[in-house]
């Protein structure tokens, strides 16, 4: 008597960031034989050196800011000095202790994710993986360089698979004229070695990363100069939102140099000097380079395996995360999709579901919710106001200042707004912007409305708590009522 056993579908994943992690979990859930290759730690740079520690640092900055602004609400902090006279203490930040906590938190999150994969039955291989054809990964021993990047040693493992998922992420872009040294000139992955709050931090780049760290370090007590090559911070974002953030920046004492470009950044004896393209020199104690990122796609056998890349080195994928080779998928910042951890996770799940024949919904980028963790935050979803004004989408626009909200008044919130975009005629919600504290939490109702094509009247009919910041969403929707 003979027995035949059906072989399990084999999935090999290169890179354990959000995309690789979700791909591994999804494959195990569907009964596949899953192997994950990761050189730095499960969670990748998103967990260890990027999203988790940076947002934790921002949370500390928010706490520091809240203490400083408490006096506006009538809460005052005093201690007793000589002759029992009240003395107002200073708010101090122990950055070394903060950074040590951030690193521990990130490593703990990585270990928790690793444990979850092991419980799910995923095999984890420590090393650097490269493709040796559409169905093979060669794994090399791994070391970690001073910059935190994995370095390749000798080959020691070979993995055959039916489906490959590449999720190798990206790294900070470096400039020849501003080489980071990890001490005075830093990328965002190197900030967590600082032992004290920088006296004067020069931030080169006013995109999302630059704006977030400029906001955080201002709240932590640094004097910050933000060098922006555009006419406003956060280029490409909602213009009203960017204007609010820049106003808050300057009101809090930040120097914003618009339409300025850093030609070079050099280390001096006790600090740094940034030379602008017009010859101006800005002296500071430290410099943060936030000039974009580069995908980690070189030297891992992608082009040799026939996988198409963009000119920037990103992997071309379709809406189910499939590359130009049917059995190979890509997820996360190494792909040419939107570089967000939430998108990477969705790509990872979608890739595995598609590869194994499960039901999938192709990713619709217009439904993606994103957030900028400045103070206040900016959350967006769907079509933009610029697209509506350019005629790409047909919609009506309504903006409600947050200062009119009763809960905002109670909390002392002066800045921010809720803006909703609704399809002309039908009133279907097609997008929105929220600028507010914790906008990342407030935007979810708008995300649901965009995803499920709810009308402004349907949104307005949902009950909100009174008083609440979310009440402004219902108020804005109510103001856009479609008369039948």
Automatic annotation (TrEMBL):
Pfam families xref list: Pyr_redox_2, Pyr_redox_dim
Keywords recorded for this protein, A-Z: FAD, Flavoprotein
InterPro entries per record: FAD/NAD-bd_sf, FAD/NAD-binding_dom, FAD/NAD-linked_Rdtase_dimer_sf, Pyr_nuc-diS_OxRdtase, Pyr_nucl-diS_OxRdtase_dimer
Residues in FAD/NAD(P)-binding domain copies: 10-348
Domain Pyridine nucleotide-disulphide oxidoreductase dimerisation: 370-476
Names of required cofactors: FAD
Similarity remark: Belongs to the class-I pyridine nucleotide-disulfide oxidoreductase family.
Annotated PANTHER family: MERCURIC REDUCTASE, NAD(P)H DEHYDROGENASE (QUINONE)
Identification of the protein by name: NAD(P)H-quinone dehydrogenase
Upper classification of the organism: Bacteria, Bacillati, Actinomycetota, Actinomycetes, Micrococcales
